[in-house]
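== Sequence entry ==
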Amino acid sequence: MGGMQLRGKTALITGSAGGIGRATSLLFAREGAAVTLVDLNQEAGQKVVHEISSTGGRAIFERADVTSAADCRRVVERTVREFGGIHILVNNAGIIRRASVVETTEQEWDAVMAANVKSIFLLCREVIPVMARARGGSIINTASGWGLAGGARAAAYCASKGAVVLMTKAMATDHGRQNIRVNCICPGDTDTAMLRSEARQLGEAEDQLLSDAANRPLGRVGKPEEIAQAALYLASDVSSFVTGTALVVDGGGLATSG
């Protein structure tokens, strides 16, 4: 087992069937947290639960659409019922549409904003009262380097992640007195299924996109486990004086832009 930095804590993690969410769920469980995994992909989500429970960890899976208020309420109620509370919320679910404004349909715009922004609003609205009753908690939102700087052919995505960064700061301001810390992580390109889907959307070869994405000071794309370590820092008491921040984890990508 790890250092057990999250012993006795419960974490609710969305988008947890793959990529950064899966890596975060596995790491948090190793560090002692009970984990509720939330995703639309039931088969992959149950597989992660099995990985956690087979090594002595505690986890449940809840299939849910995080853009639905009713689904968000159900997930939070079940987590509290099963584990007694929620100490950590990781809003990681998200989608990307690689297109300029002109190329984006209204339906695509709405889908990106719902998955990337509305979902955070809905879950936080349910979880913050639970955390307030327990006198504290940590909320971690997955933003993006493209929430701080613009990117080509990703207008809706950039808009959504910029919203995540400022919503994080606003919630940190509102709920600090309740001892609820709210931070976001701004990953650079990370080797996940989402990055590979971007290649398909752009009509590029996957290996070409990955090598282009590696054009940053550290000379490579990130691994989901590296982003998960940043989430662990923000979830644990080690970061007890950190709130309202956007933690860039991108191999230096933003350091060289502008």
Summary: The radius of gyration is 17 Å. Helices lie at 19-30, 42-53, 69-83, 106-133, 155-175, 193-202, 206-213, 224-235. The longest strand covers residues 180-187. The beta strands are 10-14, 34-39, 59-63, 88-91, 137-142, 180-187, 246-249.
